[in-house]
Specification:
mainly beta, 40% strand, 10% helix, 4-stranded antiparallel sheet, 20 strands, 6 helices, 6-stranded antiparallel sheet
Length: 345
């Protein structure tokens, strides 16, 4: 209007307006003509503070560091919304090495023509004004192309989120193929100091479904142990000391069906860690199943998922890559069938 750009802004707390230029008390800037053009009644605004105000563009840029734009969700034919809590006690403070304990959601997308983008909106709940003014919780959401399974390792995301201390984070998933596709959405924080309540919303013109990542580990157990000077034998590249490593006997008591196993090893982050699982010679079905490893050694964390593991006994041997690396470790085992585990060292 006459060379001045105006924006109508609403304080999300529904009270406390801007007190600078063009506020309701700024008699010098407002004119009856301007009030009519903006359909703004200053006298009514002076009597009731609803947090809605006009501000000129230059003041907005100078004094505000965050602004949220409303969008029309009716633009999208399909939407999914979930509300959840992430407890501060769930998992490590930082998810640099593992995402295993982060909230994870399966997103199924059924696109008729492969041209439908998907929008993912993560919103942290703010219940106190102080949380908004001093927000030190940096949040984001990562999108992984998966079969709907849990993601354990960071990196290799289809959409790598950026952690910000805004209450909202918006991600766009492009390149959705025609037909049914599955993705895993992983909520992430920079340094998890507080429990947070959040809402995850997904919008698309394609048919979408959102649900928590399933966990078929009906039975779980953690073992805390350590590598000592006597037992830190290193990986199999060091055959002279490898046999000194701690070992554990895992017995799968599967009956009518085989087991699905998830084995995690957590160790000092300065060490590259890994493990192998080998059949006990007295278990013929286990011998047929063979030996497996957690793959490349990784700092602080590694995981192995095994499907259709037959009943029998197996040795699990956790190691550091280099011998002589002493320190504590945790061996966490989850199984769809009953099992027992004990030290075999």
């Amino acid at each position: 209007l006459k060379g001045t750009r105006f924006i109508l802004v609403k304080n999300p707390w529904s009270h406390l307006r801007w007190k600078g230029k063009y506020c309701e008390h700024d008699d010098a800037s407002w004119t009856p003509e301007l009030e009519r053009a903006l359909n703004y009644d200053r006298e009514t605004a002076k009597k009731s503070d609803n947090g809605v105000f006009w501000i000129n563009w230059e003041s907005l840029l100078h004094f505000f560091d965050v602004i949220y734009m409303n969008w029309n969700p009716d633009l999208f034919q399909h939407k999914c919304i979930v509300h959840a809590t992430w407890q501060a006690s769930d998992g490590p403070k930082r998810d640099t090495y593992t995402l295993a304990n982060n909230p994870q959601w399966v997103l199924d997308v059924d696109s008729a023509d492969g041209k439908d983008p998907v929008w993912v909106l993560l919103s942290r709940h703010i219940t106190r004004k102080e949380e908004f003014e001093n927000n030190e919780d940096y949040i984001t959401v990562h999108v992984f192309k998966t079969d709907g399974s849990r993601v354990f390792y960071p990196g290799a995301a289809l959409v790598e989120g950026t952690k910000i201390n805004s209450i909202h984070y918006l991600a766009k998933v492009n390149g959705v193929s025609r037909g049914r596709q599955s993705y895993t959405l992983v909520v992430s924080q920079h340094e998890k100091n507080n429990s947070i309540d959040y809402t995850l919303e997904v919008y698309s013109s394609a048919v979408i479904h959102l649900k928590p990542v399933s966990n078929d580990s009906r039975y779980e157990k953690e073992i805390t142990s350590e590598w000592t000077q006597a037992t830190a034998g290193g990986c199999s590249n060091f055959p002279g000391t490898f046999g000194k490593n701690p070992s554990f006997c895992l017995t799968v008591h599967a009956t009518s069906q085989s087991a699905n196993l998830v084995i995690q090893l957590k160790g000092p982050v300065q060490y590259a860690v890994g493990f192998s699982i080998k059949p006990h010679p007295s278990s013929p079905e286990a011998v047929k199943f063979g030996s497996h490893t957690s793959g490349d050694y990784r700092n602080g964390f590694c995981v192995l998922q095994l499907k259709q593991v037959p009943a029998g006994s197996y040795y699990i041997i956790p190691t550091t890559f280099q011998p002589g690396r002493t320190g504590p470790f945790i061996l966490a085992i989850g199984s769809s069938c009953h099992f027992t585990v004990e030290s075999a060292s």
